[in-house]
Amino acid sequence: MNEFKISMPARYIINSILLAAFIVAGLLITQSGLLGRAQNANIISVGIFIILAVSLNLPTGYLGQLPLGHAGFMAIGAYAGAIFWRADLLPQNASIVAGLLVAGLAAAFVGVLIGIPALRLKGDYLAIITLGFGEIIRVIINNFDSITGGARGLHGIPRYSSFVIVYLCVIICCVAIHMLMKSRHGRAILSIRENEIAAESCGINTTYYKVMAFAFSAFFAGVAGALFAGNIGILVPGEFDFMTSINILMIVVLGGMGSMAGAVFAASILTSLPLFMVALNEYRMIIYALMLIIVMLFKPSGLLGTYDFSLSRLLEKLIRRLAGKKGGADNA
Length: 332
Known about the structure:
Layout: H1 8-31, H2 37-62, H3 70-87, H4 92-118, H5 123-143, H6 145-148, H7 163-182, H8 184-194, H9 196-201, H10 206-232, H11 242-255, H12 260-276, H13 284-298, H14 311-331
């Protein structure tokens, strides 16, 4: 009994039931009137930043690179999705799905274009070039007034980002990246992080996997950008500056680079903090910085390190423990 294992079909069924229960419970809570407008908006923001953090965790935590232009991909997705939705080409439900796909694919396409030359660099050089890319995107948006609205902003965006849509995207993002990392492609990505020279000597096409991870990350950043646009209904270039990229990176580092559960946990905490610190809003960045310094001093690997939550493993341990106690009682 100590070797009890939950079968793979049973794991999928359990996870599917729990995810469905989470969506239903969240929908009931947000529509019950128990929460105020600010709390409901914060729940949507938490979901968007979970997608951004989990997607950035792919090139930083799993691949071992340091891109600083995630806000640029978010901006591309936000404007691509918003412009598509404003065109009102399809019925609402089809338009929502198509807009998210357009946003993700536009960001992924640019991710490939940027990734091919940029990912030949490493460390500080990669950080600098991706930082420059993010700023270039913001400047382009500022200057294309006829398409993006420029500094005045893009107005009249349909507010499609509901709890169900946002958290379905969260689930899809987490499941897709989890499945990628459990595949042979994920093992290749991890091998590049551990030792790129050794991985290349074993026949792994390091450039291909770097660009793939970069594009995968950019796709979900673009989806998060579209959800962001559909949440607030207006876009201004200043929302996607250098500090936005730093905030997303800070979430990943705080949660633990290489830990999806850590990214989800840290995104939930840091996105919700301003709601509970209204009186201290001027000192928000100082508090964030102090939190980061304290974590790096006492837990350099982040709050959860490289730990990834698995409900199936917890259930297996619980059943083994209960079976052990029952066996001990029977022997007594």
